[in-house]
Amino acid sequence: MTASNAAESIVQGTDEKNPAGTESGGSQYLTFVLSGETYGVDILRVQEIKGWTPVTRIPNTPDYMQGVLNLRGTIVPIVDMRMRFNLERIEYTPITVIIVLSIKSESGDRVIGLVVDSVSDVINVESENIKPTPDFGDGLNTEFINGLATGGERMVMLLDVDKLLSVDEIQVLSDASEETEQNADKPDD
Amino acid sequence: MSIDVSQFLETFYEESFEGLDTMESELLGLDVGAADSETINTIFRAAHSIKGGSGTFGLNAVADYTHLMETLLDEMRDGRRQVTEEAVNILLSSVDVLREMLTALRANSELEVDRISEAQQQLEALLGTAGADSAAEVESGQNNKDSAERGWRISFKPHLRLFKTGNDPARIFRELQALGDLTVQMDASDLPEYSYLDPEESYLQWELELKGDIKREALDDVFAWVEDDCVINITPLEPEESEQGSAEEADKTEVAAVAVKTVERRVGERRQENRRKGDRRGSANNESTSIRVGINKVDAVINLVGELVITQSMLSTLGKDFNMKKINKLLEGLDQLELNTRELQEQVMRMRMMPISFAFQRFPRLVHDLSQKMGKKIELKMSGEQTELDKTVIEKIGDPLVHLVRNSLDHGIESPQQRKEAGKPETGILSLHAYHQGGNIVIEVADDGAGLNAEKILAKAIQQGIVQEDVQLEEEQIYELIMLPGFSTAEKVSDVSGRGVGMDVVVRNIQSLGGSLEVTSEAGKGSKFIIRLPLTLAILDGQTVAVGDEDYIVPLISIIESIQVTGDMFHTVAGKGETFRLRDEHLPIIRLHEIFGGNPNTTELTEGLLVVVEGEGRKVGLFVDDLKGQQQVVIKSLEANYKKVDGISGATILGDGSVALILDIPGLIRLSNQHATDDKFKKIA
Fold first, then answer.
1. How far apart are the C-alpha atoms of B73 and B22, rounded to whole Å?
2. Which of A57, A75, A173 lies nearest to residue B638, judging by beta carbons?
């Protein structure tokens, strides 16, 4: 209980327009900015926020996969969110940050880093304020957006972080499993 | 009593499998006819702990089965039964059945009820034919023992340690009382004088008479917990008029009582029980995730950590009040720190090491079974079983080794008659030998059989179109042919080997462990397969190569040499890309920057370096800008947080904290072939 109380005080500080909203059990989101748009990720998934440091490129991977980083001995893949959303690419600056998230996948928990323009604040969103993502047709992939949250004057796109790595790569993964099957033939002679 | 025993279940399974391995190896070492009682004792103890453990965890099918084995072994131990070939074989197959049962229970899958009850009947039949004077008597004894109408006489003599196991005779008596009319007679004759009395030990024994129509199983349930901590004898109460007359018979039954105790439970009932257990189906696949480490290894690590702490405190004291005069002391301290760290790393790696005997221990049985089946006489010699290898390597090297041993048994060693004709002793020798060499572990599988027939292999290879007829091959190159997919020279396909699927898989498995396989052979004298494996999978010796501003690590084991080419050494083969001449070979060139992208400092072959690497038997020249240092690198998985990347086997962290990728040479060669094909398609399009 003390933890949620502490969290409430943060929310009240940042979202004073709706202090009562914290009572009704909404979720908290860390928001960040990408080319003027605001996105949110579930704060419980955020491990840490760190400044941009050079990464090691992994060959033959999609453009948005910037490379891997050594995070205290763990190799962490870094995804550039601008490129992931096909936004214009900008130079990394001192305020460019990496949000380190833990995501769930079929093969267990994973850690990935997202490169974003800057981190803004923590907001509290009540579930009734989350609206479904409108369908933009084929041209726009909205699969990893959970919904739109409207609070006051701004609109926040809530990301489904678990899908960030998986969408687009289903094909790649099924190729890999075929290969495993081929390798599975044991010496039975 | 609220301890959750399930947390120990995994340990129980591990210990049981170890116990089974012990039983198996000891059984194989048992001399039929003149058995060493210490050997039997070892087997008995292993069976006993499996029984005890399975009872505790409620795995009754296992407990019952082990009990039968134990009974048989007990008779052997006491000299009441001869150790016969038949008995040993039945015990060996019982070990197999137990192993299957435990594996099935561990994976929560279905037990093979039929097989178990068949094996159980075999055991029971063997037990029934000896021990008691005649099987018929045991049978008749059984019938009235299942439920004696009048009641039971129980003599109960607990061991001294009974109380320490948390059992209380009074509780047992209360439970018995609930079953029927109980008369208790205490015998306190063993009670020592007061001054010698240890209040924590039980000196008393009891004679109990329980009257009423009570099932024998009900009694067994009551005594289930103290079974191992007491001498207990349960006989049915005879009708009073015949009591004296049947005293003699009662004696007999008493002898058989222990032996028959479990036999008497009806098989059908047990089947049901097993079926019930089998219903707990599930597909949880439990691979061994824990490791047993010797206390000495842990102590060594603790010692080193102690030293590390001392060095650290020395350095921090130095740092608080540092001036340039103390620079020498600082350097000294840093040296010490480096030493400590390296030693600690070595010791921690050793924790993952297990003696290779874990992989070898299955072979006595395999050789025993196969040589009987094939009618060959074979002696297995093993050495270097204490050579330590990484746990993962041990688990993965098992299958390839089995394959090589089977091959040697089937194709290598001749039949006794053939051997006699060739002037060799009838008994063939198969040897498994493990040792350290450099940074590698070498495992040799050698036989003194006929050796590989180079002519036959070559003829077969030509027939199968693997080799052109006019090619001249060295003997070694011919032997390497047997490692190609689909190659077999065996005239007849047996169920042991000969289908030609195999050697290539063996080679692939060994290579996936970062190792290599070599064959030597001498006609008429035998052949030898030499497996070389890296000490551990977690660390490898790497050569850092540079392409532009990117660094990659090439495993040192796959590097043959590095050369600087001159203009006349390389050629372009139309449509097939670039090759270069290395002495009398033409090898393809893979430009790393073409496969992996990046901005190389040079694309001129003469300005960079060619690293000649070998993967899956193919040599290629890898074109890079430059070579950097060699170092040991700790392999980190890319898959843990991302996915498998073609041509990359993992990543590592360099001294400056940055990440470098480790090349997977076989994968890289495949990738390059793919690349070339894609290019061709692009050109056609």
1. 14
2. A75
B405: amino acid identity, one letter: V
Q: CB A56 to CB B595 under 8 A?
A: no
DSSP strand pairing (B585-591 vs B618-624)? parallel
User: Chain A within 8 Å of B663 (Cβ-Cβ)?
Assistant: no
Query: For residue range B619-634, what is the model confidence (pLDDT) as tens digits?
Result: 899 999 989 888 888 8
pLDDT of B255 over the 50 cut:
no
| pTM, rounded to two decimals | 0.49
Model confidence at B414: pLDDT above 70 = yes
Query: CA-CA distance, B12 to B105, in Å (whole number)?
Result: 12
Domain ranges of chain A: 2-184
Query: Strand, helix or coil at B170?
Result: helix
Residue with the bigger pLDDT between B475 and B263: it is: B475
Q: From B493, which residue of chain A is nearest by alpha-carbon distance?
A: A189
Taking CB atoms and an 8 Å limit, are A75 and B641 in contact across chains?
yes
Kindly indicate the confidence band of residue B403, based on its pLDDT and cuts at 50, 70 and 90. Answer: confident
Q: Which carries the bigger pLDDT value, residue B377 or residue B465?
A: B377
**Residue to substitute from A61, A69, A74, A75, interface B, most B β-carbons within 10 A:** A75
Which chain A positions have a beta carbon within 8 Å of B497's beta carbon? 189
Determine, for residues A187 and B660 on separate chains, whether the beta-carbon distance falls below 8 Å.
no
Q: Would you place residue A46 in the very low, low, confident or very high pLDDT band (cuts 50, 70, 90)?
A: very high
Give pairs for B455-464: CB < 8 Å, separation 24+: B456/B489, B457/B481, B457/B482, B457/B489, B460/B487, B460/B488, B460/B489, B461/B487
* A77 shares contact with chain B (CB less than 8 Å): yes
By the CB < 8 Å criterion, does B646 face chain A?
Answer: yes
State residue A98's pLDDT score: 93
Q: Which of A16-25, A70-79, B93-102, B609-618 has the lowest mean pLDDT?
A: A16-25
CATH architecture under which domain A2-184 falls: Beta Barrel (2.40)
Chain A: nearest CA to B119, how far in angstroms? 26
